[in-house]
Specification:
The complex is a heterodimer of chains A (about 700) and B (about 100). By secondary structure, chain A is α/β, with parallel strands linked by helices. Helices cover about 30% and strands about 20% of the residues of chain A. In chain B, helix 1 (about 20-30) crosses helix 3 (about 55-65). The longest helix of chain B has 15 residues, at about 20-30. Classes of the chains: A alpha/beta (about 700), B mainly alpha (about 100). The interface of A and B includes residues 260, 367, 371 and 401 of A.
């Protein structure tokens, strides 16, 4: 075996896949990236990595990459390659024409969590200064927007309370609706390490995932609840705390509002949330709920980690509040080893949330309806800002279908594949007069686009990412952008073409602007991160010059924390005789989300297609054998997958991943969404599964009468 | 910023189909339902004020003026509180204070 060639260059950068944000050394030979070596000094990963960050990087120079801007008048026409100047001029004139015809609020933008903090900040600035409205959203709308809402409501800060290393001081680890060993593998390994050292693991998840049981790691209690019953089960845990007086009264009296706590005790303490009532409805043993509650309350250090299994429900925000309430009631905040921590999906989804890419919030989670906050931005940007909240991403699509929203600028997102109820999304896309897509590849959404702006991968740009523990790390340019421009340059040029004077020579100037405008990022700068490697916000020159690992140590952002009342309201998505099974979705270790990147790498050798996991009893009742092709029909559509018999779910629940375009999992998901944020209810869809004799054209829209 | 063009304006079509807005508003109402009367309606109002595009609020209020079919009573009451600009609560994310 020949020795590996010595690299010519080695550049330390941050992985863009999941919210762990591992540090890597990207090594090049002859100007091509040849390997990614996990970086020992990376504070999120300490030299560890997973099979995505380590191996799935060669999508960056895949032949599918688009390297020239393109435009077309109608989506049934072929693309015409143009220069950058013509593309910007055309896009700007179309947006202006639409606004002149249909109103200021008829266009909007969505930013990508695959892009840097600086690029996301610039996207929201684009909407506010060039479109002159607040129709700006980010992709956490469809994953963790309930986190921001629910944690803001209870704790006062919509982000993880801890740093990852904090788990090494936890005695009890409660994982809810997340599968870190596959979704956030490097953190998952740290979790397992702590369990092997003796911490007790509690898992609330409809599936027996690898997190529940793997070599030398087994959950003390696994609550395999029926999808959609999160809030009832979490309230039932609270019920046990209240009735057995397991709560931390001194903490609540010192750090919360006692009258709110009493109000909350009255709600969750009601008989309707007793384990004996909730258990049968959720498919759980009442005693298991009691045991889990006692273990969590006993601690002494109990910590909560959760994922999209909590947020992607019609009560997603309520579910997050339940977790905030639980931690407050047991005094599990404000020190190492405790806390409430969302496991963020994408590399920079925390940044997407922090950087003001919201229709109702500016940077640092401050409302656009706050006159004082808005005034600081107006002074810096030298114009008046819209004082009203704008449309959220799902609202934009609804408005497009209603005929009142006509143009959108989409940065690094593929809503046609990733957003729910595909038929609704494609109808919205067809109804728009100007769709601008900025991406590496001609994705599914580009089929409905009029302007295509070829973007750059995270290996081709400078900037920063903020990971799930609020850690801001450097993204460094390893190779030149294949299409010539970094994404921040593309957005800057479009803002200029719209007529607003704005110029940056380097993304560090954008981070400086963020720091000037945002208390939480006040001390952040490229210089600081170059010097100390990374820093967690809040970071300010006065009392946290190198950032903050643990939040809420002595007080909460609003002083005291709030208990929210979390009544269980079952989703309207119900099973019945025609749709007797519940479909839930997730992802696996080797592939990533809609797969735009990982499908274009050797990782397909490990997982080449999505399959539908079906319980053997459900399969037997339908004459389905392992490997059969099956149709999956919901009230919204139908698609087709290969079945795999699996006992990881309880009977009545089926499961699939959504990594491949062909599977069209979102042809069947509903358009129900979280009450507070419109985060889609991806995790619960009533379906029926049937064996199909031969391949049909999947997916297809059901005739209207079938929906009734 | 001119928002002269942002309202639903005398009989123009709503920014989003009204059935959708009614369903969303009722979901908000379901969340605030366990709060006592007073805070319950204020919770609905605060949410609509700080999270809904004004065109969505206008369309909902127009629907209420036309009878408010399908809306929970406390959602109607909460939405109507939006008219009292002197008592509006902006930039607030916690529980209704009552």
């Amino acid at each position: 075996v020949p020795n590996p060639r010595k690299p010519e260059r080695s550049v330390v950068t941050t992985c863009a896949y999941c919210g762990v944000g591992c540090g890597f050394k990207a090594e090049t030979i002859d100007g091509r990236i040849v390997r990614m070596i996990p970086w020992k000094e990376g504070k999120a990963n300490h030299g560890h990595s997973c099979v995505k960050g380590r191996f799935a990087f060669d999508y960056y120079d895949h032949p599918d990459r688009v390297k020239t801007p393109m435009i077309r008048a109608r989506i049934d026409q072929p693309w015409r390659e143009v220069g950058w100047d013509e593309a910007f001029a055309h896009a700007a004139s179309e947006l202006k024409r639409i606004q002149a015809t249909y109103g200021t609020g008829s266009v909007g933008a969505v930013s990508s969590s695959r892009c840097t903090n600086e690029e996301i900040f610039l996207m929201q600035k684009f909407a506010r200064v060039a479109l002159r409205n607040n129709n700006i959203d980010n992709c956490s709308r469809i994953c963790h927007s309930p986190t921001q809402f629910g944690l803001h409501a209870t704790l006062g800060a919509g982000a993880a309370s801890q740093h990852f290393d904090s788990i090494l001081q936890a005695d009890v680890i409660l994982v809810v609706g997340a599968n870190p060993t596959e979704g956030h593998p490097v953190f998952g390994s740290m979790l397992k390490r702590r369990v092997r050292e003796g911490a007790q693991l509690l898992v609330v998840d409809p599936r027996r995932t690898e997190t529940v049981e793997s070599p030398h790691c087994r959950a003390a209690v696994h609550l395999a609840l029926r999808p959609g019953t999160n809030v009832a089960v979490l309230n039932s845990l609270a019920h046990v705390l209240v009735h057995e007086r397991l709560y931390d009264e001194p903490f609540v009296r010192a750090r919360c509002h006692w009258h709110e706590f009493e109000q909350w005790m009255q709600l969750v303490g009601d008989a309707r949330y007793s384990p004996e009532v909730v258990g049968p409805d959720a498919g759980l043993e009442p005693e298991a709920i009691r045991r889990a509650a006692r273990i969590y309350a006993k601690g002494p250090n109990s910590t909560i980690y959760y994922g999209l299994g909590v947020t992607e429900h019609s009560q997603g925000s309520t579910g997050v509040m339940c977790l905030g309430n639980l931690a407050l009631a047991c005094g599990m905040l404000g020190r190492e080893g405790v806390g409430v921590n969302p496991l963020r999906g994408q590399g920079n989804v925390q940044g997407g949330s922090c950087l003001g890419s919201w229709p109702h919030m500016l940077t640092g989670y401050r409302f656009v309806t706050d006159d004082a906050v808005r005034a600081t931005f107006e002074a810096e940007w030298r114009l008046q800002l819209d004082p009203e909240p704008g449309l959220r991403l799902p609202n934009m699509f609804d408005a497009a279908v209603a005929g009142t929203f006509k143009g959108i600028y989409i940065q690094g997102e593929d809503p046609v594949q990733s957003d729910p109820n595909m038929a609704h999304i494609t109808a919205a896309m067809r109804a728009m007069e100007c769709v601008i897509v900025q991406d590496l590849f001609l994705n599914e959404t580009a089929k409905f686009a009029h302007v295509f702006l070829p973007g750059s991968s995270s290996l081709e740009k400078n900037g920063t990412f903020t990971n799930a523990e609020r850690r801001v790390s450097m993204v460094r340019k390893v190779v030149e952008p294949l299409a010539g421009l970094e994404d921040w340059q593309i957005t800057m040029r479009l803002v200029q073409a719209m007529g607003y004077p704005l110029h940056y020579d380097h993304p560090s100037q954008i981070l400086d602007e963020v720091a000037r405008l945002s208390p939480a990022y006040q001390g952040m700068s490229f210089d600081l991160i170059e010097r100390i490697g990374s820093a967690q916000w809040p970071c300010n020159t006065k009392d946290a010059p190198e950032g903050t690992e643990v939040l809420h140590r002595t007080q909460f952002p609003r002083g005291r924390a709030n208990f929210m009342l979390t009544e269980y309201v079952p989703t309207t998505e119900r099973t019945d005789d025609r749709f007797p099974l519940l479909l839930t979705t997730g992802r696996i270790l080797s592939q990533y989300n809609v797969g735009t990147q990982t499908r274009r790498t050797g990782n397909v050798a490990w997982y080449g297609e999505d399959v539908l996991d079906v319980h053997p009893d459900d399969a037997r009742a339908r004459g389905i054998a392992d490997g059969d092709r099956v149709s999956i029909t919901s009230r919204y559509g139908v698609t087709e997958l290969r079945a795999r018999l699996s006992e990881k779910m309880n009977q009545g629940v089926v499961y699939t991943t959504f990594h491949f375009v062909q599977s069209k999992a979102n042809a069947i998901t509903s358009d129900l969404s979280d009450w507070a944020t419109n985060c889609p209810e991806y995790k619960v869809t009533a379906v029926e599964v049937a064996k199909v004799p031969a391949k049909v054209d999947a997916p297809q829209r059901l005739p209207a009468e079938a929906k009734s | 910023v001119s928002r002269a063009d942002s309202g639903t304006g005398g009989g123009a079509r709503p920014v989003i189909e009204i059935e959708r807005l009614v369903a969303m508003a009722n979901q908000i109402g379901d969340f605030f339902a366990p709060y006592p009367a007073g805070p319950r309606e204020e919770g609905v109002r605060n949410h609509l004020r700080n999270y809904w595009d004004p065109r969505m609020r206008d369309a909902l209020l127009a629907h209420i003026r036309a009878g408010g079919a399908g809306l929970h009573a406390h959602v109607v009451a909460g939405a109507l509180l939006l008219g009292d600009k002197a008592r509006e609560v902006r930039a607030y994310a916690g529980p209704p204070k009552g």
